[in-house]
Specification:
Helices cover 39% and strands 9% of the residues. By secondary structure, it is mainly alpha-helical. It has a three-stranded antiparallel sheet with strand order 1-4-5. Strands 2-8-7 form a three-stranded mixed sheet. Strands 3-6 form a two-stranded antiparallel ribbon.
Length: 341
């Protein structure tokens, strides 16, 4: 077991270095990036849609921290680049936006329990690359950690750091740490941080920080069957500002088509409201979907359909996803994300 854990941690460190390089590039400039064009849409047997599962390019060169302090609007706090890279620091730009963070959320526990707030942000809203935890039922969060730990919950793109990191943290965290984090995030009030825009053409993009971002300039390309979700202000999100917002470009008529899919049980899918509530704000231990990242929601539907998310709730989700095509997932996610949380 010791050798296996060593291998796992080595892989995680390698992936983490790639992630660090990406965040450096975000803050210091937009350089050698991997563009994702409309031709990257290849949802098919055994092939994940690249736009939904962004993977960092491997050729980004790390930049040394010059010691300068970074700032974000509306905050008097400051952090160095090294602090913003540290998995054991949850940058708390706006402490008045949330209650005091428990230790596991604020700083984690070295060497292998990362600060929950580092990835998911101090107020739990996260970004397109990971889950928005604010307002999720505590019991649901605890169960997801158990599924990550058991191996029941994985990703259809095994190389993506957000999921491999969750698997590692779930294995190392104590029951008390998980309960404390779940209680904290569950008590946070959800807030909208994504705007849905229906369009036929979208900004050209690149991958960094395990999510997509718009390239400089005004070059556009056909959206095809994709959701292109990018930060409104890349530097703010790279600085882990919990108030960062996103724009999610979706195909024209996606929201209305999604509204119809969510409401019906006609053989294509099962009415989502029967479990997630009429307004998709959740019921009991069933998580809310309203106002969440549409790129994240597509990944969950895709993972349920392809069996890589096979933990708690997967049996209930099977009749929902088994007949869905990628276009259906896009529409459902666009509609859910358009609702107030």
């Amino acid at each position: 077991m010791g050798a296996l854990n060593s291998i796992r941690m080595s892989r995680l460190r390698i992936a983490s270095n790639a992630c660090f390089r990406a965040w450096v590039m975000l803050v210091l400039g937009l350089a050698s990036a991997m563009a994702l064009g409309a031709e990257a849409i290849t949802p098919g047997a055994g092939v994940t849609p690249a736009w939904a599962y962004p993977v960092n390019p491997l050729d980004l060169k790390p930049t040394l921290d010059d010691g300068s302090l970074r700032h974000v609007p509306g905050s008097t706090r400051a952090y160095t680049l090294s602090q913003l890279r540290d998995f054991f620091v949850a940058p708390d730009w706006h402490p008045g936006d949330h209650p005091a963070m428990p230790v596991v959320v604020a700083v984690g526990r070295r060497p292998d329990v990362y600060a929950c707030g580092f990835c998911h942000r101090a107020d739990g809203r996260g970004g397109p690359e990971n889950a928005n935890l604010a307002g999720l039922p505590a019991a649901y969060i605890v169960q997801q950690m158990a599924d990550f730990k058991s191996g029941a919950r994985k990703s259809s793109a095994p190389s993506r750091l957000p999921v491999t990191a969750m698997i590692s943290v779930a294995a190392a965290a104590t029951a008390a740490e998980i309960v404390a984090a779940a209680a904290y995030f569950s008590a946070l009030r959800p807030a909208a941080n994504v705007t849905i825009v229906e369009t036929a053409r979208v900004p050209k993009t690149f991958v960094t920080g395990w999510h997509m971002a718009a390239l400089p300039g005004n070059e556009r390309e056909p959206i095809g069957q994709r959701i292109i979700e990018v930060p409104e202000n890349l530097e703010r999100f790279a600085s882990r500002d919990s108030r960062a917002h996103f724009i999610a470009y979706v195909p024209i008529s996606s929201v209305e088509r999604g509204r119809a899919l969510v409401a019906r049980s006609d053989g294509t899918t099962v009415a989502c409201a029967s479990c997630h509530g009429q307004d998709l704000r959740g019921l009991g231990a069933i998580p809310p979907l309203a106002g969440r990242s549409p790129a994240y929601l597509v990944r969950q539907l895709y993972d349920f359909k392809h069996g890589t998310r096979a933990g708690s709730g997967s049996l209930l989700m099977q009749p929902v996803v088994e007949r869905l095509e990628i276009e259906d997932m896009i529409s459902i996610a666009a509609y859910a994300a358009s609702l107030p949380p």
